[in-house]
Amino acid sequence: MKKYLITGLLILIPLAITIWVLHLIVSSMDQVLTLLPPEIQPETLFGRQILGLGLALTFIVVLLTGVAGSNIIGQRLLRAWEGVLKRIPVVNSIYNGVKQVSDSLFRPGGQAFRKAVLVQWPQVGSWTIAFLTGRPGGDVATHLRGDYVSVYVPTTPNPTGGYFVMVRREDIIELDMSVEEALKYVISMGVATPKPGVGRAVPATLREPPV
Hints:
This protein is an alpha+beta fold.
């Protein structure tokens, strides 16, 4: 009986958590409907809330925004709108910072989370998985002597919180592991180990230089 109970838990717990997370996401997205005028909200039109309608509306708005921003007129309007935002002191700083991050994350060819690496963190002798995000720039680069790279060290089990660290290139180990596999490994606290043949590490200093 103990064996059957454990087997049942192993099947039902991941399924239940997945359904709960999806329900939480859809319910949160449905809050977008509160921005609509009261007379056209689903509760007024249909007499009750419709789960997932907010998610569908968000998808349509994002899609139409992308279509509009891909043509010449939309790009001109976008540049004009950004020009207005740049003239507002506080809004300018927030908007530019968020835009740089979103461009790096979502634009094709973006440099964020491009490779999984091993770094010694939080002390020498302790290793953790991090993600290569680029190179130090601006005035920061002028104060660093040597070849440095920028990495993001995620926390477990929530990888959206973490630390931004600049380390010497020779102090990292590049992993033969996809970003998805590395994230799964971090979120599971090391339980979901990479597939056989994945995770072979080669120190960056031992790699042959590109021809």
